[in-house]
């Protein structure tokens, strides 16, 4: 893809998980190392970022949660959250193309006044996502079935959205699986970059991260391999096709 590249912002300090996330986003978005750059925010400050240099920005998931008790947040988490808060405020103000995956629900939701809490957490593994009427009409989601399987696993979620935010998808245990702000700013609670192999890599990386009992890791992997997940990746391709320039 010629022109301005896309940017992936990563909050994963675990090398295997970070590398797999970058590779998966490239593969499913139809990009390469020239058209998708990556900044590992746990390793380096964001610095000055000119939105005009990019076709769009993708924020990956990871172990941070915005609803953590501030007293428990590490200096790195506090720095990253501050940098992202400033960046997302600019993105929302300019309606710049943005796709936040999992952690993006918390970051973007907090920026626009959504209620972010732990009342709708979901276990690691497959789940069924249902599109809203607005989701079925949205350009990034319109090519998806009304109901499809995805992989997720999160401690926090958006429980209430402000009136100016458009809910695009839900699941049985989580009322907000995706939303849009303005015309071009998106977040998903599920992971559009995850297939079964990717989820297994994450399970190994976060085995002791408090998402599941460590002794259930192999059971979770088996469950992931038994449930084909093929549709969410189309969101990444639709994002890059819509906004590539």
Automatic annotation (TrEMBL):
InterPro entries for the chain: ChyE-like (IPR044992), Class_I_gatase-like (IPR029062), GATASE (IPR017926)
Gene Ontology molecular functions: GMP synthase (glutamine-hydrolyzing) activity; transferase activity
Signal peptide bounds: none
EC number per UniProt: 6.3.5.2
UniProt GO cellular component terms: cytosol
Organism domain of life: Bacteria
Top enzyme class: ligase
Keyword Ligase assigned: yes
Keyword Metal-binding: no
PROSITE patterns for the chain: GATASE_TYPE_1
Keywords: Glutamine amidotransferase, Ligase
UniProt cross-references to Pfam families, sorted A to Z: GATase
Domain Glutamine amidotransferase: from-to ranges: 51-194
Alphabetized PANTHER family for the sequence: GLUTAMINE AMIDOTRANSFERASE YLR126C-RELATED (PTHR42695:SF5)
Protein known as: Glutamine amidotransferase
């Amino acid at each position: 893809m010629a022109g301005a590249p896309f940017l992936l912002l990563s909050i994963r300090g675990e090398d295997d998980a970070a590398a797999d996330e970058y590779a998966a986003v490239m593969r499913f978005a139809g990009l390469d190392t020239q058209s998708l750059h990556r900044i590992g925010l746990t390793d380096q400050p964001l610095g000055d970022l000119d939105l005009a240099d990019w076709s769009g920005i993708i924020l990956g998931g990871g172990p941070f949660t915005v609803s953590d008790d501030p007293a428990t947040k590490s200096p790195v988490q506090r720095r990253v959250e501050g940098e992202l808060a400033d960046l997302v405020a600019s993105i929302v103000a300019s309606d710049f193309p943005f796709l936040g995956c999992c952690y993006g629900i918390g970051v973007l939701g907090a920026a626009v006044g959504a209620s972010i809490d732990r009342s709708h957490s979901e276990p690691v593994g497959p789940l069924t996502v249902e599109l809203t009427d607005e989701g079925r009409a949205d350009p990034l989601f319109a090519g998806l079935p009304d109901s499809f399987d995805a992989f997720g696993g999160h401690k926090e979620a958006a429980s209430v959205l402000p009136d100016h935010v458009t809910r695009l998808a839900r699941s049985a245990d989580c009322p907000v699986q995706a939303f849009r702000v303005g015309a071009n700013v998106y977040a998903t609670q599920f992971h559009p970059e995850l297939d079964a192999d990717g989820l297994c890599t994450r399970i190994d990386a976060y085995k002791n991260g408090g998402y599941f009992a460590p002794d259930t890791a192999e059971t979770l992997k088996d469950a992931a391999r038994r449930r084909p997940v093929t549709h969410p990746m189309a969101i990444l391709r639709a994002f890059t096709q819509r906004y590539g320039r």
